[in-house]
Amino acid sequence: MRIVLITPEGPTSRTGNRVAASRWASILRRLGHRVRIAADYDGRPADLMVAVHAWRSAAAIERFKAKFPECPVVLQLSGTDIYHYIDSDPVPTLRSMELADRLVALNDLAWRVVPKRLRARLCVIHQSAATLPHPRRPSARAVVVSVIGHLRDVKDPLRAAEAARRLPATSRIRIEQVGRAYTPAWAAAARAEMEVNPRYFWRGDVPAAAVRRLLARSHAMVISSLSEGGANVISEAAVAGVPVLASRMDGNVGLLGADYPGYFPVGDTEALARLLQRLENEPRFAARLGKALARRAPLFRPALEIVAWRRLLAGLRR
What we know:
The protein is of the alpha/beta class. Helix content is 42%, strand content 16%. The chain has a six-stranded parallel sheet, sandwiched between helices. Strands 9-8-7-10-11-12 form a six-stranded parallel sheet, sandwiched between helices. Helix 2 runs parallel beside helix 4 (90-99) and helix 5 (159-165) packs across helix 10 (269-281). The longest helix has 15 residues, at 16-30.
């Protein structure tokens, strides 16, 4: 098939949506299809549209369906779609979902916010991750806890840094954060945190290879988001064997499972500080996290993501 893959422009080419779109384009090409990636729909013929983000791609989906009503649309629901825009701007968000022939979610609990009339169209495709190129070797100089993600409000990006301030003076915890600041205010906040918090280091936007090197020397990773659609960094950490400390909300629980032992309440600095202390001081707790994560890691194998897309496309032809 000729597939147009719509992924709206972001402030960096390494946004979660852009990275996912690039990986999906590779999968679809591997399955024998011709794929072009675009930020918007230009009217050219295609047999199928795969659109990322219901709200941001609303106009593109509308134009494609008006011009080619018999051609299917597969819509990937982003975290901001299902945990924000579906309430704050429901008309274009729900219109995109109504027009789509298939809805793709990235976590197992997304169905809870999809309208009942549309749930039959929904499938979950877990984002995959490749294994690290070299064996993981956690740092011996410090207990490195990585925070991987761009600095923006929904990520609650400085929560780990604030939690590290609550640790005893003897702690060897070191918070290393990578990701672009979406606003000058977030960049200023990160720099100000480094000035007053000797446990915190922000590296800014770095290449994917540097992210993988950080994971390889991390003892754990924190994802403190207020909401998520299904963060690929969890897949990467699970495949790498890096324990995750995660805010308890659907996007994280839908990937890690309800019984995962490394959750803290959203925005709860004290609770995260307690988890960091346990990670550093209780080998059994770190081992529990590792075993729980190992049980989830098979979900994120690249082969399973390829199979999921093959099945989805086969279902469209029936």
